[in-house]
Specification:
- This protein has one domain (about 1-155): Lipocalin (Beta Barrel), CATH 2.40.128.
- The chain contains 2 helices and 10 strands; from the N terminus they run H-H-E-E-E-E-E-E-E-E-E-E.
- It has helices spanning about 1-15, 20-25, and strands at about 30-35, 50-55, 60-70, 75-80, 90, 100-105, 110-115, 120-130, 135-140, 150-155.
- This is LuxR family transcriptional regulator.
- Keywords: Signal.
């Protein structure tokens, strides 16, 4: 319940941040980020070999590009571009989403909601640490029997 209230609060704050503040502050998230797979709760042999997330400004729209090399060496490359207004946009190449929506309630925070085939997926909250070199991703979704799950992932700036 606390997670839902927190998520609703963040979503409400997104409505109060002027668009110019969002655009000007987005630079803190821009760039590429590599996942620290050693901090994942999965067994080492089940962890992906690498995950890189890149955020870029595509002429007033936000682009997210995710490259994953799984434990068995299989690769996936997902791409989504859209305004930071919460409107749904198409995602290409993702095994877990074909639609995403983006909001930026603060200059160093991005909220991304995902779905696939019309079925809600996860909500991802990306937050850049004050040092500008580290990014924390919180993934919120519903697991078995509708039980809410929150997972945290840690990234370091690549460029």
């Amino acid at each position: 319940m606390k997670a839902l209230v927190t998520l609703m609060l963040i979503a409400g704050l997104a409505q109060s941040v002027p668009l110019t503040a969002r655009a000007a502050g987005s630079a803190s998230l821009l760039g590429s980020w590599a996942l620290d797979t050693s901090r994942m709760s999965l067994a080492p042999e089940a962890r992906p070999k690498s995950v890189t997330i890149s955020f870029s400004d595509a002429g007033g729209k936000w682009t997210t590009h995710v490259d994953i090399v799984s434990a068995d060496g299989a690769e996936s490359h997902a791409l989504g571009t859209g305004a930071l207004d919460g409107a749904p946009v198409a995602v290409q190449g993702s095994p877990e989403a074909d639609v995403a929506a983006f909001k930026m309630p603060a200059p160093n925070v991005l909220i991304m909601s995902l779905s696939k085939g019309g079925i809600p997926g996860s909500t991802r909250i990306y937050s850049v640490e004050p040092d500008g070199k580290h990014l924390v991703e919180t993934s919120a979704y519903f697991g078995d029997q509708g039980v809410p799950v929150l997972k945290t992932y840690y990234f370091s700036r690549v460029r």
